[in-house]
Design brief:
42% of the residues lie in helices and 21% in strands. By secondary structure, it is α/β, with parallel strands linked by helices. Helix 1 runs parallel beside helix 4. 43% of the residues are buried. Keywords: Methyltransferase, Transferase.
Length: 238
């Protein structure tokens, strides 16, 4: 199969929204890992006075992680999928959370203009057609010294990690998703990861987009070598 892109991918997420939370809940550590990645941003206190962009928020799992770690921050949560956003909006949200429908490539058209103190993007960059353009746009939305956090499937490059990913997808995720009528999206999930950057290549991509202090940090459990947190900063000047 070819990778899903743009409108086709958005439509697949729209359809999958009804069962998405149940599938991710079956992933051990899914929500705890998102909170760990948010903590790795190193933002002060409870986030009072901070403005955060949750890019590719889906049904709100990453939004919930931001809210749990930084309860006083103002969050703008963006996704291209109307179905996913409708699920997110039905959940109870303490504090200031605003949901906006927009592709990551056209944020300004939807009124998402910043500046933000931090941008968090979970499971997004491998799904966009031009990740370099999105990273550059994100950099421009940040205040000088603003933080970037990317939580993404990026394989280490070891054969064993690709093998584990394939076994999990084909043996567990894809059968469950196919039963819900969403097999195409989760076949895309498998292929999008194996064809995307390795961890070192993605870190280099972030640096090339104009970020500094780029670090790639592993996540624990079965996802070690498969999923990483990337943290970086926009330069203070220039």
């Amino acid at each position: 199969m070819t990778l899903l892109r743009d409108e086709d991918l958005t439509a697949a997420f729209d359809h999958a929204a009804r069962g998405y939370d149940a599938l991710v809940a079956a992933n051990p550590g899914y929500h705890a890992h998102l909170r760990r990645s948010v903590r790795r941003l190193g933002l002060p206190g409870a986030g009072a006075g901070l403005r955060l962009l949750d890019l590719g928020c889906g049904t709100g799992a990453s939004t919930a992680a931001l809210r749990a770690v930084l309860p006083a921050a103002r969050i703008t949560a963006v996704d291209a999928s109307d179905g996913m956003l409708r699920r997110a909006a039905t959940k109870p949200w303490a504090g200031e959370v605003t949901f906006v429908r927009a592709p990551a490539e056209r944020l300004a058209d939807a009124g998402v203009t910043g500046p933000f103190d931090a941008v968090f993007a979970a499971y997004l960059l491998r799904n966009v057609s031009d990740p370099d353009a999105v990273l550059t746009a994100v950099r421009d939305l940040l205040v000088p010294g603003g933080r970037l956090g990317v939580h993404e499937y990026t394989l280490s490059g070891r054969r064993v990690d690709r093998a584990v990913w394939t076994v999990v997808c084909r043996g567990l995720v894809q059968p469950a998703a196919s039963a819900l009528g969403d097999g195409g999206l989760y076949r895309h999930l498998w292929r999008s990861v194996v064809e995307f950057d390795t961890v070192d290549r993605f870190a280099a991509r972030v640096r090339a987009a104009g970020f500094e202090r780029v670090r790639a940090l592993p996540l624990p459990g079965w996802q070690t070598g498969i999923t990483h947190t990337f943290v970086a900063r926009r330069a203070e000047s220039g």
